[in-house]
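Record filed here:
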Amino acid sequence: MPDTVVTVQNPDSKPGKPGVENGNINNIFSWVEINYKYFKTLPGILKLAQLILGIICLALASPARLPGTNWFLFVVIISFIATAIWSFVYLLSIREAINFPINWVLTEFFNTLLLTVLYTVAFIVQIAAWSRPYHSYYKNPNIAAGVFGIINAAVYGTGVYLIFSDWKKSKTASTVQQQ
């Protein structure tokens, strides 16, 4: 039995250029809108600071020489990945493009709160592990990594406060609209 092939072609499209119609590219990423202005706001600047401080912590604490540093690096990497994902959510305007029944502000609040707690525990473990009387070449960079961990925990804590205040404002605004 012979196969039947049906080819449908838009009369306006030019041959040899699939997906291009009238000079516009139509593809699955047409909903993406780059929102670089977010990184000029205080929450955006905090996200960039979290990423930069995370890279500094990774550079100073690697390679892990003590078990406490393994935990510290685990937390730094998980926090870095989560913050990078949230940064892309804001950069690509995914919150506005996807219509999921998700409370984005509350989700980000709990994520950032968890990362703040983990960072706090991790920097305590890191500094405690390297505060023993070691005479090692690796002691000073690892103590510095713990200090940068303190700074990053404070930046994450500031992010928690800002997200919480944003959530309270949105909750108050929705309550006023319902009345």
